[in-house]
Amino acid sequence: MKKLLAGALAVALSLGMMASTSSAYAADDGKYVVAGVGKDRTPWFNRHSEGVVQGAEENGMEGIYSAAPTADEAQQVRIIEDNISKGVNALLVVPNNAKSLEPAFARAREAGIAVITHESQGQVNADYDIEMFNNTTFGELMMDELVKFTQGKKGTYAIYVGSLTVPAHNMWADAAIAKQKAEYPQLTFINKFPVSEDRNASRQTALELITTYPDLVGIICMGSEGAPGVAQALREKGLKDKIAVLGVTTPNVARRALKDGYMSEAILWDPAQAARIQAYIAKMVLDGRQDEIKPGFEVPGFGAPEIIDHNLIFNSPLQITKENVDDYNF
After folding, report:
1. Of 149, 185, 249, 328, which has the fewest beta carbons less than 10 angstroms from its beta carbon?
2. Is 39 within 8 Å of 69 (Cβ atoms)?
C-alpha cells in the first residue's frame, strides 16, 4: 500500500499545490490515500475538502486535499499530475475544464488510480462522475425561481458561469435559457458571463449590466462567487429587493445578503456530501466492486442514484432563503 509523507501533506494543505518528488504516498497503516482536488480555495471548496477527509475516514482511507489559489485550469492540471507522480490511490476532482483534464485522467487510470469527478457529467477518462441532481432539472429550477422572485415582470436577465468550459455550469445555464424561451416570453436573455468564480469580476460585471440594461430584472449565478459579487454591487447602488439574484453559493456566504434583501435565494447542494459520495465510490473502484454499481444500487445515507453511463445522479438540491438560512452552517 501507499504511504503518505506528512511533510508533503502539510505543504498540500497550506499551499494548495504539491511539489513533484519520486516518493509514493503512504498512509501510516497502509490505507488507501485519496486526493481531493478543488477548483480554488473559496469557502465552497473548503467545504468540499471537509467532505473528502470525512468520506475517506468513513471508508477506512486517508484523505488529503489540494487547490490552486484561484480557478486556473493549468494549475489544476499540475496539481493532478503531482498527485499522480506521488502515487495516490484515487483522485476526487471538481474540474475547471473537463477537456484539459482528459490526458491527466488517462495517465492516472493507467497507473491504477481511481478517478471520481463531480460537476463534470460525461467526463472523459473518469471512472465515475457524481452529480447531486439532474443538471437539466436544476437549471430549470433556477429559471422558475427567477420568475418567482421577479413576480413575472418583463425585462432582461443575465447568467454567470465560472467559465464557458465548466461542464455543469453551462448545462444548468443552457437548461435555464431553454426553459425561459419555452415558458417565460416576458424575459429577454442578455448573455452568459464567465465571471462567477471571481467575486470582484462578478461585482464589476453587475455594475456594468445595471448601467447598460435599465430593465434588468435578474441575474442567475452558477458559480460560488457570483451571487455574493452581484449582491455587493446592488448594495453599493442601494438596489435592495430591486433585482432578483440567485446563486450557487454557501449559506454562510449568502446569509447577510439574503437577510438584507440583496440576494433572493441560494440554490445549491452540500459539496461535502458530494465528496463523501466520491470517496465511497472511489473505495468501490479500488476494491474492484464496479459490477455492483447498477440499477438499484444505493449509497448508504444518499439512496439510489439515476445511473447514466458512468454518471451517478442523486436528487439532493438545497434552496436557501432568508427564512431558513440559519438552519445551515457551512
Report:
1. 185
2. no
**Distance from C-alpha of 6 to C-alpha of 266, rounded to nearest angstrom:** 38
List the end-to-end C-alpha distance of the chain, in Å, as a whole number: 34
State the amino acid at position 316 in one-letter form: S
Please give the class, per CATH, of domain 6-133+271-316.
alpha beta
Q: What is the rounded CA–CA span in Å between residue 53 and residue 311?
A: 22
Encode pLDDT of 215-269 as tens digits. 999 999 999 999 999 999 999 999 999 999 999 999 999 999 999 999 999 999 9
CATH number for the region 135-268 comes to: 3.40.50.2300
Separation of CA 35 from chain center: 16
CB 3 within 8 A of CB 25: yes
Q: Give every CB contact of residue 115 below 8 A, 6+ residues apart in sequence.
A: 90, 91, 93, 105, 108, 109, 125, 126, 127
Domain with CATH 3.40.50.2300 in the chain: 6-133+271-316, 135-268
Q: Which one, of 128, 252, 146, 125, lies nearest residue 190 by Cα? A: 146
